[in-house]
Design goal:
The protein is 31% helix and 17% strand. By secondary structure, the protein is an alpha/beta fold. The structure holds S-adenosylmethionine and iron/sulfur cluster (2 copies). One iron/sulfur cluster binds next to helix 11.
Length: 332
């Protein structure tokens, strides 16, 4: 096990461009913790687009082939399309994960700058449930408008991520499946995870991927599909009637640490090798202290080759209370 873990290649990079967000999703940035007094990163500590682009180029030199811009909410960072344009010439699959709230006015500029696809988070089509989950009363229609604008701009196929939390939105699973079948968009159900320490996670709140697949299969028969590539985190199923596919991300009930090829860069320039890490390696002093690319490359490589993360495989009811970094900080 340990040997395999150490040999995992570095293929996939998530870049958080901000720790801020205009939502307060109950499973990610609960208001009690992320209220008016919450200390977000000061501007001076947030990496500039130039600094991010330099680091991403170095990561690409180390084997990264997928780059996902995330946050916090990436579209609250002004002129994000400028960063997209800087990254677009690289030989990577460049994507963005967003809550969709600002996507309608931005989709065209992002596509023109070279963005290839987007993933939009959407937890319910029921307006009341959605407003309760984002906890700022944001209407679902504006996210749907964002998805339509992204589609029109060619940012497709669009993935739609739904976090399922028991007692809150599991009744939205079937309506979501029904609505996105046949649209070409790929709906992905995510097991509610114990990221960070602020969402009060309990194992009982997790609706398992198996339950979700069974509930959909009863109404719209499904068949499993093989992974599109090694290390793909979503289990894929296709509708037997040809109306497209869904994905399930079973990080709680069926962990996939042995295949995890993903690194995360926080908005202030720390490198994390696991979603559940307690500490990152701060690259900003090197970046701002005059280090050359080779020195940065060595720093990243030494962190990656030393990693032996497999949090999800070790998770138990007791691990919920451990100190961990927040999802909104390193981008999911
Ligand atoms: N703000 C953007 C968004 O919501 O898409 C990007 C950042 S968000 C942290 C990235 C993804 O993490 C979203 O799809 C969100 O639903 C997911 N997420 C956040 N907290 C989660 C949790 N506790 N369990 C599972 N997924 C979670
Ligand atoms: Fe914001 Fe995304 Fe977290 Fe929701 S999931 S609070 S939209 S960062
Ligand atoms: Fe990767 Fe850590 Fe998630 Fe395991 S728990 S799949 S090592 S990010």
């Amino acid at each position: 096990m340990t040997v395999d873990v150490l040999r995992r290649p570095l293929r996939d990079l998530r870049v958080s461009v901000t720790d801020r967000c205009n939502f307060r999703c109950v499973y990610c940035m609960p208001k009690e913790v992320f209220g008016k007094d919450h200390a977000f990163l000061p501007h001076s500590q947030v990496l500039s687009f130039e600094e991010i682009a330099r680091l991403v180029r170095i990561f690409v030199g180390l084997g990264v082939r997928k780059v996902r811009l995330t946050g916090g909410e990436p579209l609250v960072r002004r002129d994000l399309e400028r960063l997209v344009a800087m990254l677009a010439p690289l030989d990577v699959d460049l994507t963005l994960t967003t809550n969709g709230s600002l996507l309608a006015p931005k989709a065209r500029a992002l596509a023109d700058a070279g963005l290839k696809r987007v993933t939009v988070s959407l937890d319910s089509l029921d307006d009341e449930t959605f407003r309760r989950m984002n906890d700022v009363g944001f209407p679902v229609q504006r996210v749907l408008d964002g998805i339509a604008a992204a589609d029109a701009a060619g940012l497709a196929p669009i993935k739609v991520n739904m976090v399922v939390r028991r007692g809150i939105n599991e009744t939205s699973v079937l309506p979501m499946a029904r609505a996105f079948r046949g649209t070409g968009h790929i709906l992905r159900f995510i097991e509610y995870m114990d990221v960070g320490t602020s969402n009060g996670w309990r194992l009982d709140d997790v609706v398992s991927a198996r339950e979700i697949v069974a509930a959909i299969d009863r109404v719209f028969p499904l068949e499993p599909q093989g992974p599109a590539y090694r290390g793909e985190v979503a289990g894929r199923y296709r509708y037997r009637d040809g109306a497209g596919e869904i994905g399930v991300i079973s990080s709680v009930t069926q962990p996939f640490c042995a295949d995890c090829t993903r690194a995360r860069l926080s908005a202030d320039g720390s490198l994390y090798t696991c979603l559940f890490a307690t500490e990152g390696r701060d690259l900003r002093p090197l970046l701002r202290g005059g280090a050359g690319d080779e020195e940065l490359r060595e720093a990243i490589e030494s962190v990656w080759t030393a990693r032996a993360d497999r949090y999800s495989e070790l998770r138990s009811a007791d691990t919920a209370g451990l100190k961990k970094i927040e999802m909104s900080f390193i981008g999911g």
